[in-house]
TrEMBL record:
Keywords: Pyridoxal phosphate. InterPro entries: ArAA_b-elim_lyase/Thr_aldolase, Low_specificity_L-TA-like, PyrdxlP-dep_Trfase, PyrdxlP-dep_Trfase_major, PyrdxlP-dep_Trfase_small. This is Threonine aldolase family protein. It comes from Christiangramia antarctica. The lineage of its organism: Bacteria, Pseudomonadati, Bacteroidota, Flavobacteriia, Flavobacteriales. The keyword Isomerase does not apply. Belongs to the threonine aldolase family. Residues 5-290 form the Aromatic amino acid beta-eliminating lyase/threonine aldolase domain. SUPFAM superfamilies: PLP-dependent transferases.
Amino acid sequence: MQEIDLRSDTVTRPTKEMLQAMMTAKVGDDVYKEDPTINALEEKLAKMFGKDEALFFPTGSMANQAAIKLHTQPGEQLICDKWAHVYNYEGGGVSFNSGVSCKLVDGDRGMIKAEQVVENINPPDFYHSPLTTLVCLENTTNKGGGACYDLEDIKEIRKVCDEHQLGLHLDGARLFNALVKKKENPKDFGKLFDTISVCLSKGLGTPMGSVLIGDKKLMKNAIRVRKVLGGGMRQVGFMAAAGIYALDHHFDRLAEDHRRAFEIEEVLKTLHYIGKVENVETNIIIFNLREAEKEKEFTEYLQKHNIRISNMGQGKWRIVTHLDYSEEMHQRFQEVLKNASL
Ligand SMILES: *Cc1c(COP(=O)(O)O)cnc(C)c1O
C-alpha cells in the first residue's frame, strides 16, 4: 500500500521531467555570480514581480532572515502576526541574526489589519521603547491554514508604512498558491512590498530553494548578508533549473491542490468524529477532533492505512495537499476518513 504523506507540501520529490531539466542545466560558480541558470531564474522572478533584482537562497527561512537584516538595525522592532513563521519557526533568527524584537499582533488566521499596525508602532521620539522599522506579512498564512490576504488590506498597510517610514516585507513562502487562488497579478505584490520571499520547494515541488525579490537600493547588500549567513553556493544552477521548470509547469496546477483540499474539507465536515474545520482557502486544512482523547486512536488508524498528517499540538491537525498527492490517493484518503469508527 503506497504511503500517502499529507504532512506538508515540502515532501514532494522532483518529477522525471524536472530531473531532466536539472540534469541538462548549464551551471557555473554562483558565488562569482557566474551560474547562468541561477541568473536566469533570478531575472525571471524579478521580472515576474516587476522588481529590479532577485537573489536565490537555500531556504525560505534564510531569505526571510536576510530580508529582516536588510531592513533593520540591532535594537529595532518589527511588527508581525502572533502566528508568523518569522517569529515561530525560524529558530529565533530575528533576534539571533538581526538583534531585532517582534511586536506580535493578534490577527485573524495569521493576517493583520492596518489599524493594528498603527496601534503597534512605537512613537519614534520616545527613546525608551525600541524603534519600529519593519512590518512582516505572510501570504498565504501557514499556521492560519492557507488563508489569503485581500489586496485592499495590504494597500492600507502599505499606506501606514509610508506614513511612518516602515519597511514592508512579505513572507511569500506560499504566495504562488494565493496568486492562483485569487487570480492576482504578481506585479501588484511587487508594487506594494519592498521585499518578497518566495519558496520553490513548497507547492511548486522543487527539492530546494527560495528567492528574495526587491529593489536595487535594498538588495545591494543582500548578497553580502547571504554570504554571512552561509548561503553562498557554487554550481547551484541545477536547483535553479528545477525552479524554472516548476514556474513554467507547476504553477497553474496549484488549483488542483486547492480543489482536493476543498473536497477533503467537505468530507471532514460530514464526519461525526471531527470537530471544528477551519475554512479552507488554498492547500492547507486545519481541523480538530471532536474528542481530544481520541488523538492516539486517530493516529494509529491513519498509520494502519499508511497515511501521515501533522499533529500541530493543542488539538490542531494539519493536512497539506501537493504535487505528489495523486487523484488515486485522494480517493483512497477520503474513503479511509469516511470508514473510521472513532
Ligand atoms: C516553509 C515556510 C517558510 C520557509 O521555510 P524553510 O523550511 O526555511 O524553507 C517560510 N515561511 C512560511 C510561512 C513557510 O511556510
